[in-house]
Amino acid sequence: MLPEAHKLTSSADFRRTMSARTRSGSRTLVVHISARTDIALAGGPRFGLVVSKAVGNAVVRHRVSRRLRHVLLGGVDKLARELDIVVRALPPAAEATSAELKKDFEQAAAASLKKLAKQKSS
């Protein structure tokens, strides 16, 4: 389970992060990243998950969510404190292993971070 300090909780935060235009995808996931300006309130990077009914029934969605939370927990120390990250699971995530989800998250997050850095420098 992710600690409260690492969770996106408001729909406004989800909306802001997903509309930031810094997203990258893989076969199983789409990763949206935005940087907060109020890092004084930050306890670390904050994560949100979107696992829609397109992924599968409730049992499958819950399994995918558990696997993704575990993957995200491992990335807490590797990411900057001011980041908000929304991970949207795609239908192939239902059949993916935890290792595949981890690899896809790391690749998509790296690509999104590169886009974010390019936006900041512009």
TrEMBL record:
Documented EC number(s): 3.1.26.5
Alphabetical list of SUPFAM superfamilies matching this protein: Ribosomal protein S5 domain 2-like (SSF54211)
InterPro entries per record: Ribosomal_Su5_D2-typ_SF, Ribsml_uS5_D2-typ_fold_subgr, RNase_P
Catalytic activity: Endonucleolytic cleavage of RNA, removing 5'-extranucleotides from tRNA precursor
Keyword Transport: no
GO cellular component: ribonuclease P complex
PANTHER family tied to this protein: RIBONUCLEASE P PROTEIN COMPONENT
Annotated function: RNaseP catalyzes the removal of the 5'-leader sequence from pre-tRNA to produce the mature 5'-terminus. It can also cleave other RNA substrates such as 4.5S RNA. The protein component plays an auxiliary but essential role in vivo by binding to the 5'-leader sequence and broadening the substrate specificity of the ribozyme.
Subunit structure: Consists of a catalytic RNA component (M1 or rnpB) and a protein subunit.
Name of the featured protein: Ribonuclease P protein component
UniProt source species: Corynebacterium qintianiae
